[in-house]
Amino acid sequence: MNNYFSIIIPTYNRAEIISQAIESVLNQNYQNWELIIIDDGSHDHTKKIVNSFLDKRIKYFYQENKERSAARNKGIEMAAGNYTCFLDSDDKYVQDYLTNLNSFLIKESNPDCLVRCNSILNVENKNLKTNTNTIKFSSTIDRFLKEFSPLCAICVSTIILKKNKFEETLKYAEDTNLWMRIACQYPILFGDFDSCVINYRTSSSENVTIHLDYVKSFSITFSIPEVKKIVNRHTVNNLFERRLKWSIEISKKSKNFLIFIKSYILFICFKLKIVSFY
Predict the structure, then answer these.
(1) Residue 76: partners with Cβ closer than 8 Å, 6 or more residues away
(2) Which tens digits make up the pLDDT trace of 76-124?
């Protein structure tokens, strides 16, 4: 049986760039899908741009600004497909993603699961392949956390998402929180094909501070008793260490010395085992 995919795009004031995301869905070789766009309180002409695409499968909903997790949860509530995928308004799917995803799921007998596919990272107009499968991992969870697992490379059974939604109190890494909670109950499968192109902007001002916010969110996620049972402590420590290193490097480049000092002190404490995250 061919699958019906619900694709959720949350957006906020992205009128100038959301067209490429929508077009990447319209241009899919596989056409059995619905596109749910949740406008999280935009003040620009996002609605006009979306409505210019005359396709009944594209469904636009506006809500007062509640942040991206609430927007995605709204999309999940409306999803009618048996599988749900995600896409950010500044990223795009590769053309054969849904075709390959559908074939993969059929081959696996359409299970209730989370699927993580490969992705392409676009940094300063250079496409970098991720997840080359050259590293050995101790477990499925170990692989999922150590490899690059962006939101647009994830597909989940809609029935699972109806029961397990994004934690709206988390500012960052809310997706990791949800995936780990799902992994406690359902299998994670890996699709060895590309899903999306992610546009990574190193110059964004928010990148200076978000890494410490990620650390805070990780602390909450990996303190959940059920999650602690399935995740190796060394994997978690590696995750924290990488995030703190990124925080140090980005704060140095941006000359945000307050964030640099906070990141560096936390990193040293972590290395000296004064601070333990797991």
Answers:
(1) 8, 84, 158, 161, 162, 165
(2) 999 999 999 999 999 999 999 999 999 999 999 999 999 999 999 886 6
pTM: 0.88
Nearest to 144 by CA among 158, 163, 130: 130
Burial class (CB in 10 A: 0-12, 13-18, 19+), 243: buried
The number of angstroms, rounded, from the C-alpha of 242 to the middle of its chain's C-alpha atoms is: 18
Task: Output the six-digit token pair for 133.
Answer: 């499968």
- Per-state percent for the chain, helix, strand, coil, to nearest 5: 45, 20, 35
- pLDDT tens-digit readout, 48-68: 999 999 999 999 999 999 999
Which amino acid is residue 241, in one-letter code? Answer: E
What topology does CATH give the domain 5-200? Spore Coat Polysaccharide Biosynthesis Protein SpsA; Chain A (3.90.550)
The backbone torsions φ and ψ at residue 51, rounded to the nearest 5 degrees and listed phi first, read -70, -15
- Rg, Å, the chain Cα set: 19
Residue whose C-alpha is closest to residue 106's, from 226, 1, 211? 1
144, 236, 239, 268 from 252: Cα distances, Å = 29, 25, 20, 16
Question: How many beta carbons lie within 10 A of that of residue 205, not counting itself?
Answer: 8
Distance CA 244, CA 250 (A): 10
Q: Any idea where the domains of the chain sit in the sequence?
A: 5-200, 205-271
Cβ partners under 8 Å of residue 59, min gap 6: 34, 35, 36, 37, 78
